[in-house]
Design goal:
2 strands, mainly alpha, single chain, 10 helices, 411 residues, two-stranded antiparallel ribbon
């Protein structure tokens, strides 16, 4: 297609680049494949959104199963049938939980009832404390506005806490049902995964089976290590928190200690949550000076956790960078709430396994193949083919001056 010419207003002609039409051809099977992929993604998202609770229960059951797998394997090595080994471990768990219930349930129930009865008094004291702070900050309008908003909200927050406490028996019933379901799924996982693993590996190509086997082993090790590390952190921090609050004379030490142990399910952020609750209780039930002592106590506990428990127990088992753990907890909490914060660390560990075992080798393999092709062209004395340069528009030609008609010379 040649260049076209255009005439300017002064009668001069200029060359313009010819227009090029880009044609994109899409095969019908490509459209069908893209449609099928889109529908598959939508179906998976729909099922995941509707059955999120089921997936969470299954994931927790798998974590529990991998956590007790080493004990089951040791008992099976001593010729104990695998189902019997799992049942014996369950029995030991029930014995430990029964002992804890016998030792803690009565203090917890009494302290929880006392806390519920004292909620109106705590709300009144908190509002009076905020009013005194507001009077001291009369010169700052922003502080006064923030305290006024907090004063208006604190009563509603504490009043909404009472229905939650009254609904606690129903929540405990639901928790017991989910716990039994988790134990059942974990039992089936431990007793049947040995026969299921060869079947799944047999469906894969032969060259990918070692990688898949390594991914399964890494997942089992990290999930089990995560569970054991969390249990150690919960017991140590919960016990130290309860004893420390009891020594300081803070009310409800058993209740606050159990809360500190449970919040250890959220790495790094859990101690801040339980510490904030303990500080508020100390400030309202005793005095602000006692709240300062509680702050010092939880700062010491935070140092113990950050310098001993997390590096020794968590980092050596899960093998995740602390920054990645914090980012995973924040993202999981933003997406799925408390359950997302709790399960974000083992899920991040699984994602890391996929990245290290699958994605990173694929990228390195592609880069190595490109280097080999480049080296082959250099050895052959050829330059590697370069992609064609995009067409350049034709430069306009300079206008030529019109020739003047020759006038014949006078004779």
């Amino acid at each position: 297609m040649g260049d076209k010419t255009a005439r300017s207003p002064d009668g001069q002609t200029t060359a313009q680049p010819a227009r090029r039409h880009l044609t994109i051809a899409i095969e019908p099977h490509t459209l069908w494949l893209a449609t099928a992929i889109a529908l598959g993604v939508l179906a998976i998202a729909f099922v995941f959104a509707r059955a999120l609770g089921v997936f969470i229960v299954i994931f927790i059951a798998i974590i529990l199963a991998e956590g007790i797998r080493p004990l089951v394997d040791r008992m099976q090595a001593r010729r104990v049938p695998r189902p019997l080994a799992v049942l014996l471990i369950y029995l030991a768990i029930f014995v430990v939980l029964g002992f804890l219930a016998y030792a803690l349930v009565q203090p917890l129930i009494s302290q929880l009832a006392a806390f519920a009865n004292a909620l109106p008094d705590y709300a009144t004291e908190a509002q009076q404390l905020l009013l005194r702070i507001q009077q001291l900050a009369r010169g700052n309008a922003q502080i006064q506005q923030a305290i006024s908003l907090l004063t208006s909200q604190i009563g509603s927050i504490l009043s909404n806490t009472l229905p939650v406490i009254l609904h606690l028996p129903f929540a405990i019933g639901d928790l017991v049902f989910n716990a039994l379901l988790i134990l059942l799924i974990a039992f089936l996982w431990l007793t049947s995964i040995g026969r299921l693993r060869p079947f799944v590996l047999g469906l894969l190509p032969a060259d990918t089976r070692p990688t898949a086997q390594a991914m399964i082993d890494d997942s089992s090790r990290k999930l089990g290590g995560y569970l054991r590390g969390v249990l150690v952190n919960m017991v140590v921090i919960g016990t130290l928190s309860g004893l420390g609050l009891w020594a300081l004379g803070v009310p409800y030490p058993a209740l606050l200690g159990v809360l500190a142990g449970l919040t250890e399910l959220i790495p790094f952020l859990g101690p801040w949550i339980s510490g904030a609750v303990a500080v508020v209780v100390a400030a309202l039930a005793v005095d602000p000076l006692k709240a300062g002592e509680v702050i010092v106590l939880f700062m010491v506990l935070q140092q113990v956790e950050g310098n001993t428990l997390v590096p020794i127990v968590m980092n050596r088992t899960v093998e995740l960078n602390p920054l990645l753990i914090v980012v995973a907890v924040l993202i999981g909490g933003a997406l799925f709430g408390i359950a997302g914060s709790v399960l974000s660390v083992p899920l991040a560990a699984l994602i890391e396994i996929v990245v290290v075992r699958v994605l990173a080798p694929a990228v390195r393999h592609a880069s190595a193949r490109a280097e080999e092709r480049r080296a082959a062209h250099e050895d052959a004395g050829e330059t590697p083919p370069e992609p064609p340069a995009p067409p350049q528009p034709a430069e306009p030609t300079e206008p030529t001056e019109p020739t003047k008609p020759r006038v014949p010379a006078p004779t």
